[in-house]
Amino acid sequence: MMLPTSTYRIQFRNGMTFDRAIECVPYFKALGISHLYASPIFAATRGSTHGYDVTDVNEIEPAIGGRQGFDRLSRALKDAGLGLILDIVPNHMAASTENPWWRSVLKLGRESPYARHFDIDWSERLTLPILGKPFKDALSDGELRLKRDPESGELVLGYCDTLLPLNPDSTNLVPASADEPALVDLAIDEELIVNLHQAQHWRLTYWKEAARHLSYRRFFEVTGLVGLRVEDEQVFEDSHRLVLELVRSGQVEGLRLDHIDGLADPKQYLQRLRAETGSKIYIIVEKILGHDETLPASWPIAGTTGYEFISALGHLFVDGGGLQQLGTAYANIAPDMADFTAGLRAAKQLMVERYFEGETTRLVKIVHGLYPDLDRAAIVAAIHESLIAFPVYRIYGSKGPLEARDADVLSRVISSAAEKLADRRAIDVVARLLKGGVREAAAKEFRRRFQQLSGPVMAKAMEDTHFYRYNRLLAVNEVGGDPDIKPGGVEAFHALMLKRAKLNPHGLSATSTHDTKRGEDARARLYTLSEGADVWAQAVERWREMNRDRLIELPGGLTPEPNVEWMLYQALAGIWPEDFLNGEAEALIGRFTAYAEKAIREAKLGTNWNEPHAGYEAAVKAYATALLSSTNLVFHEDFGAVMRPFIETGYLNSLSQTLIKLMAPGIPDIYQGAELLDLSFVDPDNRRPVDMTASFASLSERTPIASLTVPALKQRIVQTGLHLRKRQPELFAKGNYVPLKVSGARKDHVVAFARELNGTYVMTVVPRWMLGWLDPGVLFAGPEFWNDTVIQVPAFLEGRRCDLLTGQALDPRVELPLSTLLGSQPVALIEPVGTTEDHEIIA
Questions:
Q1: b/e sequence 152-184, b meaning 16+ C-beta within 10 Å
Q2: Which CATH superfamily is domain 729-842 in?
Q3: Domain 100-223 listed as CATH 3.30.1330.10
Q4: What is d(CA 415, CA 418) in angstroms, rounded to the nearest whole number?
Q5: Which pLDDT does position 105 carry in this prediction?
Q6: Cα–Cα distance between 1 and 505 in angstroms, integer?
Q7: Backbone φ and ψ of 739, nearest 5°
Q8: pTM for this prediction
Q9: From 52, 97, 315, 442, which residue has the greatest number of CB atoms within 10 Å?
Q10: Which of the two residues, 534 and 186, has the higher pLDDT score?
Q11: Percent of the chain with pLDDT over 90
Q12: Is there a contact between 403 and 265 (Cβ–Cβ < 8 Å)?
């Protein structure tokens, strides 16, 4: 298998085209990456900002350069010695008339050649939840009109900007007079519209009805994305024609598979994809692993996109004792939100009862059809409790018995669900169906649909609801994280990395992605709140009092409520500039208030996406704006003074986690622009265009490392680490992970490990928990801080060595004093003397 030594993620669209990416190729090469990692490049809906709403899987998006632009980029990458990894979307496409397959289905129904390409229940007409009001109201308001499609010339039914193709057999209902060009755009008699609508393969519905009833599988709760049936051989072939062409031509060397858990049978799909692409292609999957969960060993892939690596870093840098203190303070402020387990259950219950009501109702219908003697209410309760009890995204298996790992998960789920039920008969039936013990076709459908639903329930409940309600420490509310697990410290991190080296050595190691809740450097800064929990808690109380007159009285009470206030101060801490000037406030206000609006809508308490509460949202955004207002000088001075040590320690955390990512098991992934500083919020803030010209200019500076600003220093560390990986690919692809023993008074403040292979090695030494130990403006503690702390170097790592970042020669003895390694610099990267070839990188 071809293995990248590193990847650099680019978000195409939003101004990033293939030709703009070509301009960046010299920068990518100078930085040291081996592969560009591209967001979806296939044709998507007009104005798409992300490309996951694909309309044509066999066309490259014209807006970013089309096939010719892609070919130019491919040549430029190859000329520079770089490869390309593509993000593809096998689970879904856009449910849009811009999608020719979907348009064919709307027009021809079950007779369309693409009718079985989508996961549609054809026992009824295809539901289209696009109306902004009930059908009768839209009709009476004249919003439904007969029009002529400007491209095809055919008669269509128009609603807003959507032109819906008509069943050819239904056009005889339209009077000849209405077919005249001069009359086409006029409102047609309501009775005619009703009759015409009844004659279609689809029916229009109010968008709010989709949660209760929908005749096709959607992506999560997004009705604009319809599930693909890639388990069908013809669908696989049709939807992968261009992807496979690009792979076989050598233009694409790796694939990232979006939302693998959405597929009916991920294992079958991956085996088919591997057979079609060959053994050399690098394949990774977007898969969120629960605590102690591992990838199925039978999947023929290199690993995941790396969310679990972010979680591991959180557990390393967060102070467990301080986290407990934060929890106490948080419980005093927001007692109703402080119980994580109860909150997660409530969020899951909301999902299964409301947001995925239609999907759960369909499961109930299947079970009731198989077992009509069972009480329907008992079936509902059993299915709901089973979904709520799932500790991971899903189990797998469409044929035969479950693998041992999944059987164990299911056993625990059923046991947990049964505790909530008065009658076990229904839950025993659910267990039997999920184990594959019933052969009827309906039982297989239940098994498949339940597996495809448990993931969305978990994702929407945990990441997109509970993570915006439970605000104890936002830094650990991250995709793939579990904020309720006590941090295990250095020893637990070493254990995780040893496990990663064994089970997932070639998956990506991510710190920022297009889906993370906040940028890696904002997260690194917020970790430090656990080190100064008492200072932070007292400051929040003081700031709340300072800004008390900014609260707005609503019928539900003063707004924002304390839980949201606590959240806003943390969110602000993550983006607060080192030297805040009131002139910067305006630029921050827009980003901050947009984040505040998204956070409270995702929390689904005072407002939500489906039914926004204008008054509540206005009050929260007014408060957020007031925090940054140029008239709030006293608060700014206090906030800035409190934040200063957190910011500086956060910078050091940033450098530490960056070097760990570069050297740990896995393949480091650099998200666009994050090689400098990434203090972004959740999307769309983290998908803003990046100034690559500034990045290249920073990289080109040959300033001595001791004189670099923090962003440039981080970039230099990234460059040094990536070039080291390119020089020694075998060391990082196959090398052992060796935890290094640290002794002395400050042993808990350092993380040290080596990568070793056949006598070749590199050692990584970084600090942690440094709040209160740094002088202002200095990113390291002096030799006196480290005192007697030393690294015990194993005998097989002895010999002459130097620090690759500074070029400093180091003592070859068995013990390495931390006072020497970190007494005058932030982090250390140690290599045996004589192996370094790129001295210009570290000058």
A1: eeebbbbbeeebbbbbeebeeebeeeeeeeeeb
A2: Golgi alpha-mannosidase II (2.60.40.1180)
A3: no
A4: 5
A5: 98
A6: 13
A7: -65, 135
A8: 0.95
A9: 52
A10: 534
A11: 90
A12: no
